[in-house]
Amino acid sequence: MSSSSRSFKKRSQPAGKPGQPYPAGSIRLNVFSLMLLPDLFLTLPVAANPYNPLYLYLLAPPLVLLNLWALALLAAPGRLQINYVLFRGVYGILCSLGLMTVTQKFAYDVLILPVPWYSVVSFGLYGLAFYAYATRHLAKQGQPAPSWKDRNSKTGAGLSVYIGLGSLVANLSLGIATQQLVAAVLMAVYVMLALLLFHFIMELHRYYRLNRQVQE
Questions:
Q1: What's the pLDDT score for residue 22?
Q2: Cβ–Cβ under 8 Å, residues 151 and 85
Q3: Longest Cα pair distance anywhere in the chain, in angstroms?
Q4: HSE, side-chain direction, 13 A CA sphere, residue 76
Q5: What's residue 102's pLDDT?
Q6: Which of 185, 186, 189, 183 is nearest to 111 (CA)?
Q7: Which helix (H) or strand (E) holds 185?
């Protein structure tokens, strides 16, 4: 381990202080839990009927990248604590945009929307929502930060709840609804998950701050 990494650890021993990386002991479980979302919620709709190879070409590269990166983190979490923060940020970007991409398949391949207004409106509102979230997040940087335990428990529990609710809604819809209604319900669930992942995207800002501390 480099001297800069050792000095960084010395400066960031107190748990829950701003600028502290995630503990190595929690990384494996968190990575495994996080990868359930892209491996299920992105892979299954892309492979399902009606099949459209365009979505496979768009989503396969980021899915392969995330899974290879996750394997590296599972193999050596202690050496990649700061890298894990970067992983969370990239994970947020790729999964959030991936979920929005899958909604396009639901809209145009299942609901057969005849005009491109859904793509324009959905991604436009998505961009505005992220701008508002990022602005609020950066404005809070001067306030006391929650501990890593609080942060992990809230985001992990929230993500698990939304995934569980999404699966439940999907299963119930399959039993009582038409394919078009199922697609509409899943579109709402996917948009909700995409917005929830804004929290992970802002980990890129945290990674930037951690790197600055290491360099200092």
A1: 83
A2: no
A3: 61
A4: 8
A5: 95
A6: 183
A7: helix 179-196
State how far the Cα of 148 lies from the Cα of 154, in Å rounded to an integer: 10
The H or E element containing residue 105 is: helix 81-105
Asked whether 55 and 108 are in contact (CB, 8 A), the reply is no
At 90, which amino acid appears? V
Cβ–Cβ under 8 Å, residues 85 and 18: no
- CA-CA distance, 27 to 43, in Å (whole number)? 23
Q: Which residue has the tokens 């909604």?
A: 103
- CA-closest candidate to residue 41, choices 63, 22, 57: 63
- Host H or E run for residue 176: helix 148-176
Distance between CA 173 and CA 164 in Å, rounded? 14
pLDDT of residue 14: 37
Omega cis (within 30) before 50: yes
Sequence length of the chain is 216
pLDDT of residue 140: 79
Q: What DSSP string runs through 30-95?
A: HHHHHTHHIIIIIHHHHHSSSP-HHHHHHHHHHHHHHHHHHHHHHH-TGGGHHHHHHHHHHHHHHH
pLDDT per 10-residue tile (average), the chain, 216 residues: 44 45 85 90 90 93 95 91 93 96 93 87 92 87 50 48 51 57 87 92 89 72
Q: How far apart are CA 65 and CA 194, in angstroms?
A: 19
